[in-house]
Amino acid sequence: MDTAEIFETESLHTSGAYAKRPVALVRGEGAHVWDSEGREYIDCIAGHGVAILGHSHPDVVEAVKRQAETLMVAPESFYNDRRAELYSLLTPRLPGDLSRFFLCNSGAEAVEGAMKVSRFFTGRKKFVAAKWGFHGRTMGSLSATWNPRYRKPFEPLLTDVVHVPFDDLRAAEEVVDEETAAVIVEVVQGEGGVNPGSRGYFAGLRRICDERGALLIVDEVQTGFGRTGRWFASQHFDLVPDVMALGKGIGGGVPMGAVVWRESLGKLTPGAHGSTFGGNPLAAAASIATIGVLERDRLPERADRLGTWLLEELSRMDSPVVKEVRGLGLMVGIALRSRVTPILRRLMDLGVLALPAGPTVLRLLPPLVISEEDLERVVVAVRKAAAEP
Ligand SMILES: Cc1ncc(COP(=O)(O)O)c(C=O)c1O
């Protein structure tokens, strides 16, 4: 198909749920993607943070090929070698005694699972979530998501969810009570504007949850697997959640999610939750390869180093539209005094793909394998694109 045919056919059938850019991506390698016209871009969207190893990483490709030839389908009603290997690789990298898993297929599913797990283990109903928090768009996860624009058309959602200001311990203190099943937060709010919480906030949430018998769910769907410069962003703050939601980078590009909780909470009972595709050996093999590369190439440490450099470079930018540069590791937000869309468009013209985090924040989520030269090019392009409103 040529570009016109792709646009025409997709437009005819697409759901309408996405505002599409007028570009058809057809190939990717490392931190680069190409469109149907052969134009090359540095990809700081990376599938909304999925492609942590870049596109088509050879180790992931090889693992998927090998597994596809061996066994693609093995329901959780049986044991499987790839799943077992994945559990034993992932557990030592997670904080505390997080070692019971439910494998699924996306971030929203992981959040749904985390919410169910919390109700299951506490017998309580209420959730406390943060304003500007984003946890997905299925009915349960949407109940925890804050943005009224996403929620309103689909109400009534879960009624037992209270949203309080993020990074405000006093506000949490007032609403977490003996009815609360769980508090759910991101360590760095992604979609909500790339806002990291503070050490005191997370320590306080941990204490409040312990005192009142509520569980602490940390949504690491976007921040997990090295993105912020640690394996998991919770580790920046020595935070041990009770339940963690994982997604995006976990499968190195293959759709996957996971709920993981503390061993001390116990196990679900048969039938309490389920997923036909969850834990399929193909995704597990991709995840094993991804973890192997993150470890071998020390990519979390690399994200820490490059992220510090990127934040410093961008903070030096002299632009009338830039209000603040913030982030953690290779999860960077540039808060603007104007709307982000024109700058995203200019960046695309300059050969860099970036994404918004709300209407006035530009977000960069490059693959953790991006070269230093490419990152320098990104800085130059951002400077140029932000030189005018
Ligand atoms: C923090 C967070 N939680 C959950 C989700 C939902 O993940 P998915 O789009 O895979 O359902 C996202 C997606 O952007 C996210 O950033």
Question: What is this structure, in a nutshell?
Answer:
Helix content is 36%, strand content 19%.
Please give a structural write-up.
The chain is an alpha/beta fold. The chain has 2 domains: 3-57 and 298-387, Aspartate Aminotransferase, domain 1 (Alpha-Beta Complex); 58-296, Type I PLP-dependent aspartate aminotransferase-like (Major domain) (Aspartate Aminotransferase, domain 2). It contains 13 helices and 17 strands. The strands form 4 sheets. Strands 4-12-11-10-7-5-6 form a 7-stranded mixed sheet, with helices on both faces. Strands 1-2-3-15 form a 4-stranded mixed sheet. Helix 3 (58-70) packs antiparallel against helix 10 and helix 12 (341-349) packs across helix 13 (372-385). The protein binds pyridoxal-5'-phosphate (PLP). Pyridoxal-5'-phosphate binds next to helix 5.
List keywords for this structure.
36% helix, 389 residues, Aspartate Aminotransferase, domain 1, four-stranded mixed sheet, 13 helices, seven-stranded mixed sheet
Q: Residue ranges: pLDDT <50 for 5 or more in a row?
A: none
CATH H-level superfamily of the largest domain: Type I PLP-dependent aspartate aminotransferase-like (Major domain)
Summed over residues and divided by their number, the pLDDT gives a mean of: 97
Strand order of the largest sheet: 4-12-11-10-7-5-6
Q: Kindly state the percentage of residues in helix.
A: 25-40%
Query: Helix tally?
Result: 13
**Gap between N and C termini:** 37 Å
Q: How many separate domains make up the residues? A: 2
